[in-house]
């Protein structure tokens, strides 16, 4: 199946989820998760209009980032590439990410905030970040505990080069996507509470949640960014 076919299928499912939940399609953005595919497949996705690209390690993303940053590369309908760092980020690696990636989806500790802030200050920029929350409580998942969110947001005021724009979570894998609904709903409720009580309230507009297996439920519960890999760009290692 071509990437264009995949995009069309996903679009139909997004539109149906929006219809069920009374949401507008334009309020939902897709991050095409290209971490499991080659440069060639990433280029195909970008040229097909998927301008928001998600990677979780700089050493894997570097060749793609460099190739798509070439000035001579024609811009497709979707516009310039917008890079999202979606993996767990080590503080010492922040220097590789800040200035290259437009969004960070995995801010989950103050030591990382400090590292991001220092690099952003050096570059004279402010970094839009999602705060990762471990809503499910799984030991294998990264993220702060839900009860730590408001104190964490308070502490982030010490790092003005960080711009918190929303929350991110990863739901447990479930055979039935409907089983993920409580996780997504809880993240939305946390976001809404933070918007009312945090100094960053007016900036916390977004929810990064929902992947290939559960994105429709995430949309119904308020996702503004969905992170789609295998369903959208495939997973080449499984095709060999």
CATH class wording: Alpha Beta
Instruction: Say what the CATH topology is.
Output: TIM Barrel
End-to-end distance: 15 Å
| Low-confidence spans | none
- Beta-strand level of the residues, as a percent range? 15-25%
- What is the alpha-carbon Rg in Å? 17 Å
Work out the number of β strands.
8
Number of domains: 1
Architecture, CATH level 2? Answer: Alpha-Beta Barrel
| Helix/strand/pairing category | alpha/beta
Order of helices and strands: HEHEHEHEHEHEHEHEH
Please provide a brief summary of the model:
The chain is α/β, with parallel strands linked by helices and 240 residues long. It contains 9 helices and 8 strands. The chain has an 8-stranded parallel beta sheet.
Question: Features of this protein?
Answer:
single chain; 240 residues; alpha/beta; TIM Barrel; 8-stranded parallel beta sheet; 9 helices; globular
Protein model, in words:
It contains nine helices and eight strands. The longest helix has 19 residues, at 3-21. The two termini are 15 Å apart. By secondary structure, the protein is of the alpha/beta class. The chain is globular and about 45 Å long. The model has no long low-confidence stretch (mean pLDDT 93). It has an eight-stranded parallel sheet.
């Amino acid at each position: 199946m071509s990437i264009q076919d995949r995009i069309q299928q996903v679009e139909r499912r997004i539109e149906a989820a929006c219809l069920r939940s009374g949401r507008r399609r334009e309020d939902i953005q897709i991050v095409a998760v290209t971490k499991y595919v080659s440069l060639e497949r990433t280029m195909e996705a970008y040229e097909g209009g998927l301008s928001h690209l998600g990677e979780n390690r700089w050493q894997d993303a570097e060749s793609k980032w460099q190739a798509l940053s070439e000035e001579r590369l024609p811009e497709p309908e979707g516009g310039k590439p917008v890079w999202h760092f979606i993996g767990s980020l080590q503080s010492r690696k922040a220097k590789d990410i800040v200035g290259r990636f437009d969004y960070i989806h995995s801010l989950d500790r103050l030591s990382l905030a400090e590292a991001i802030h220092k690099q952003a200050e050096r570059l004279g920029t402010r970094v839009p970040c999602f705060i990762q929350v471990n809503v499910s409580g799984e030991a294998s998942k990264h993220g702060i505990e839900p009860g730590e969110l408001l104190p964490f947001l308070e502490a982030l005021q010490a790092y003005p080069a960080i711009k918190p724009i929303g929350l991110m979570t990863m739901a447990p894998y479930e055979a039935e996507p409907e089983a993920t609904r409580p996780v997504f709903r809880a993240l939305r409720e946390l976001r809404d509470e933070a918007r009312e009580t945090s100094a960053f309230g007016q900036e916390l507009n977004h929810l990064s949640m929902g992947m290939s297996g559960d994105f429709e439920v995430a949309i119904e519960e308020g996702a503004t960014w969905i992170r789609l890999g295998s369903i959208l760009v495939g997973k080449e290692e499984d095709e060999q």
